[in-house]
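Subject: sequence -> C-alpha cells, single chain

Hey, anyone have a minute? Need the predicted structure for the following. Not urgent.
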Amino acid sequence: MITSTGDDTGHADPEGEAPWAMQLVIHIDKADPPTRTAVCEAAATAVVRLLTDPEADQEWAPAIQRWTDGRIRKHARRASRPAAWAKVADLPGVTVEHDGARVRAFVPTATDAIPADIAKLQLSGTEPEDPDRRTRRVEPVPAGVVVITLNPDAEMPLGKAAAAAGHAAQLALSDMPADRRAAWQTNGFPVVVEQPGSDDWAGLVDAQVRVVDAGLTVVAPGTTTAVARWA
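Reply:
Had a minute. Here:
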C-alpha cells in the first residue's frame, strides 16, 4: 500500500518561490447541474489523462516535474456561466466529459501565475445533489477500473472531494504495475467513486493507495480523505 498526504507530498517548495498547483475547473450548468459523484469521477480521470497525455512527455514535462518535486496541490474551481467555461477551455489541459459532468485539468503552474480566467473562478458554491451516490462498496472491483472511496466521515465540499479523488487516481497511476496501468489506460482511465457507510470504510484501510490530508483546507490534518483500489 502507498500512503501519501493529499496536497502535500512531504517535499518542500524551494525557498522564495510560490507553491505550485494543478487547477481543476468544473463546469456547473445551473439549469442541469452534474451530480457530485459524476464530477469526482470526471476529475479523477482528467488528472490521470493529463499526466499521461503525449504533451506530458514533451511541452508540459517541466511544469509537471516542478509540481511533483514540491507539494502536490490541486485546486478545484467552478465555471457556471458558458462564457467563463469557454475562456478556460483552450488553456493547456485535458477535458473529460462523463455522465453529465465536465471537468478540465490544467497543466500545473505557480500559484502566483494562475491564468487570470481561471483564478477569477470560485472555489466554492452550491453543493450539487447526488442521487446516484454509491453507498455500498463496489465488490468485486471491475477489471480495468479504479475504484476510489471517499471518506464518509469527512465533510468535504465538492471541490475538496474532487481534488481528493484526483489525488487518489494520481497515486494509483504511479503505484500500479505496468501491465495493469496499460489496461487502465486502454480503457480511457475509467474511475468509479463510492462513498459507503462508516463500517465499510473502516474495512478499506489496506487499500492499495491511501490519501492522508495535510490539513491545509477544510479537514483536520492526518485525515484519510480517499483510498483507491483495483483488481
